[in-house]
Amino acid sequence: MTPTQHLDGLARVLPAAGWSTRPRYEEIPVLLRVFSPYLPAFGESVWVKPGVGGVPWFMSSSGDPIAPCHDLVGAVQGIADRLGPIAEAARAMGQEGPLRRLVTRIQHAMRRSHVIR
Asked: To the nearest 10°, the Cα dihedral for 32, 37, 43, 46?
């Protein structure tokens, strides 16, 4: 399988765990942007690296291994471990009245400035 195929497989399972994805296959290496819908400007850029014995691994944007590509459950958990606490804080802030309005205004401003694509 190619890195793109591995990332496509991961992209298919992440929404069930509450994550949004955006393929960035024009990048080298190809990337899958993973983020919370509550905090779209913050996320993880996942890529694929051949591992020991040719076993490909999902890697974080910082170069840390997440999980072997054949372990989609482990990859989803690894991403949740990295992004979950921050995404949960953003979600909680977004549910509060004035804070929710502030988050919405920031998101709209970021979209207008093309920070979020």
From this structure: -20
Coil, strand or helix at 23: strand
Between CA 102 and CA 108 the distance in angstroms is: 10
* pLDDT tens readout for residues 58-92: 999 999 999 999 999 999 999 999 888 777 776 66
- Please indicate, yes or no, if residue 42 is contained in any of the structural domains: yes
Q: How far apart are CA 66 and CA 58, in angstroms?
A: 5
Which residues form the domain of 52? Answer: 3-83
Q: What letter does residue 26 receive in the DSSP assignment?
A: T
In terms of Cα–Cα distance, which of 41, 40, 10, 7 is closest to 26?
7
3-state class (DSSP) for residue 84 = helix
Claim: this prediction has a pTM higher than 0.85:
no
Residue 34 lies in a domain: yes
Q: Is residue 91 part of a domain?
A: no
Q: How far apart are CA 82 and CA 17, in angstroms?
A: 14
